[in-house]
């Protein structure tokens, strides 16, 4: 039994460095996604009013001039991708169906990256908390308060990092989910109008 406990202790201690490296990599990825999120939010705010005016004018008129519509203003997010791809594509029903499906997949892919951070960030943070607690308890029993305090600093730091990854990812996911749902409704409407 003692050999099994030693093997488990060694394996869990060996996981600490990969967990810390993965946490740092995920935190950098989260910061990059946050930068993209802020840029997209600024683009949406900047072009939102103009987009709404052009969209309302195009959808309330009796004849829908797609070329004038897509050349009139810049569109953010997956709506912009749809507009750019539609400019160079044929406007057959089959092509429009494929373009709409591609935009649904693009929205799903963008949201999946944040879902990964929501789930895996706190898991890695918890692993980074629990792994150093074993050596910290050993340091406490040996009277080595310096080693114990160092292990506790690692434990609490990884917790904070993992929870911040999850929190930031969740906030971006909530907002982007609404953006993309609205974009997909508009894309389907435009595809029907064409």
UniProtKB/TrEMBL annotation:
Location(s), subcellular: Cell membrane; Membrane
Keyword entries, A-Z: Cell membrane, Membrane, Protein transport, Transmembrane, Transmembrane helix, Transport
Ranges where the MotA/TolQ/ExbB proton channel domain occurs: 89-169
Metal-binding recorded as keyword: no
One Pfam family cited in the UniProt record for this chain: MotA_ExbB
Top-rank lineage group of the source organism: Bacteria
Protein transport listed as a keyword: yes
Membrane topology annotation: Multi-pass membrane protein
Family: Belongs to the exbB/tolQ family.
Protein's recorded name: MotA/TolQ/ExbB proton channel family protein
């Amino acid at each position: 039994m003692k050999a099994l406990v030693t093997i488990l202790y060694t394996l869990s201690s060996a996981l600490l460095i990969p967990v810390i490296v993965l946490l740092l990599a995920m935190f950098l990825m989260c910061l990059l996604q946050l930068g993209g999120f802020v840029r997209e939010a600024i683009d949406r705010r900047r072009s939102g009013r103009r987009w709404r005016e052009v969209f309302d004018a195009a959808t309330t008129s009796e004849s829908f001039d797609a070329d004038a519509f897509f050349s009139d203003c810049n569109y953010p997010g997956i709506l912009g991708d749809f507009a750019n791809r539609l400019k160079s594509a044929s406007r057959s029903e089959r092509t429009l169906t494929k373009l709409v499906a591609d935009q649904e997949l693009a929205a799903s892919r963008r949201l999946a990256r944040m879902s990964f951070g929501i789930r895996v960030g706190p898991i890695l943070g918890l692993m980074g908390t629990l792994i150093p607690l074993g050596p910290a308890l050993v340091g406490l029993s040996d009277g080595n308060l310096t080693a114990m305090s160092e292990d506790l600093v690692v434990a609490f730091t990884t917790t904070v990092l993992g929870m911040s990854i999850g929190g930031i990812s969740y906030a971006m996911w909530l907002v982007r989910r609404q953006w993309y749902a609205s974009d997909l409704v508009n894309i389907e409407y435009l595809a029907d109008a064409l």
